[in-house]
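Students often ask why inverse folding is considered easier than folding. One informal answer: many sequences map to the same fold, so there is more than one right answer. In these notes we will look at a single instance of the problem. The structure comes first.
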């Protein structure tokens, strides 16, 4: 099939999140014989028209100028370009800014939509935005030929609210297998002698809880904060903690090798996410054998289980920082158990096989999403 992937800044991945997902999915579908097109922002660092046999289409993106509104316009331009690509199907990431334009997708093109983070997106925004997100969700469900959910929670939500079945395909990551201690020199840290937080710099992640805990612990060990810090909230954090030299704001690190090594060689990795069902940050940390301290909520617990630590407040964070030493052999079982979860539940080979079935089902109406879901449960 000829499949277009929309809803990302582009590949190869430079920004994480949906872009990382799109990269792995595009590579996997290409290896399985599909012809894949990925839409890239015009200012993406990669400017060639093909990458690993994947076609790249660059589209003007005004998000840098107009913020979220620019994202809507960028996705509109991507959708309008579809008429030139003779696609059999489109795969939509970031349905919140794409579903508004679904009526412009050519009628003979099947639409597969990745439904992630439904209720979390609504909770995290003010009333007006939550109203829009409800609308975008409704349109995405109504105008899609096939829905993909990334957690059992989302699957049940779609069934209960819309009476729609979906194929459950958990977010997938690759196990990090080539640690390189020399990378740490670029960040002036030593193995297991620093702690790290990698997160989206947004208010709903309540990063002050973690950083206040760092201040309370007062242990002097470097605490690295990684994430795009070019927004008002991130600026306020840098101002608040500028008197604490152990807290180092590094900004976004787009090189995956650097990020993975910083996870791997950290003493404690802090996971702040409170809303996303996808939880890519947590899974990537687990895949890098990071010893994780996660925000105490049902979503994080459903993924990591008992193989890590949880915190509710700054006092919990301070206690963990003061007491936990990753090199203590008591924690090796946690790291091994999390790798086992990645290999059995959150691995790309399993997810790609399910995606292959989804796209083939679009040509074979006898293959239903219910059958695919049954197969996904059996794997």
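Output (designed amino acids):
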């Amino acid at each position: 099939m000829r499949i277009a992937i929309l809803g990302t800044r582009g590949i190869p991945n430079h920004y994480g999140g949906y872009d990382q997902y799109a990269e792995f999915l595009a590579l996997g579908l290409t290896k399985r014989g599909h012809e894949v097109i990925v839409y890239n922002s015009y200012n993406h660092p990669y400017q060639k028209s093909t990458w690993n046999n994947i076609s790249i289409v660059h589209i003007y993106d005004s998000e840098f100028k107009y913020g979220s509104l620019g994202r809507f316009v960028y996705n509109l331009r991507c959708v309008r370009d579809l008429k030139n690509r003779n696609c059999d199907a489109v795969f939509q990431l970031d349905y919140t800014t794409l579903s508004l334009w679904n009526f412009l997708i050519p009628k003979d093109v099947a639409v597969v939509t990745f439904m992630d983070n439904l209720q979390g997106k609504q909770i995290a925004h003010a009333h007006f935005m939550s109203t829009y997100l409800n609308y975008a969700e409704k349109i995405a469900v109504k105008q899609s030929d096939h829905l993909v959910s990334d957690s059992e929670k989302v699957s049940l939500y779609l069934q209960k609210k819309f009476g729609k079945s979906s194929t459950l395909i958990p977010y997938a990551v690759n196990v990090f297998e080539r640690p390189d201690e020399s990378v740490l020199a670029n960040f002036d840290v030593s193995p297991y002698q620093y702690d790290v937080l990698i997160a989206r710099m947004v208010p709903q992640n309540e990063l002050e809880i973690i950083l206040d805990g760092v201040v309370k612990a007062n242990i002097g060990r470097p605490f690295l904060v990684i994430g795009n810090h070019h927004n008002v909230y991130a600026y306020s954090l840098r101002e608040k903690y500028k008197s604490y030299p152990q807290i180092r704001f590094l900004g976004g690190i787009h090189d995956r090798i650097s990020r993975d090594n910083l996870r791997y060689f950290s003493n404690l990795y802090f996971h702040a996410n409170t809303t996303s069902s996808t939880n890519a940050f947590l899974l990537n940390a687990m895949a890098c054998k990071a010893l994780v301290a996660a925000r105490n909520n049902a979503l994080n617990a459903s993924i990591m289980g008992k193989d890590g630590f949880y915190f509710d407040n700054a006092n919990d964070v301070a206690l963990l920082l003061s007491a936990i030493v990753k090199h203590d052999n008591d924690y090796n079982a946690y790291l091994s158990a999390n790798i086992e979860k990645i290999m059995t539940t959150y691995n790309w080979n399993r997810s790609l096989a399910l995606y292959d079935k989804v796209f083939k089902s679009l040509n074979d109406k006898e293959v239903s999403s219910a059958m695919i879901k049954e197969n996904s449960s059996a794997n």
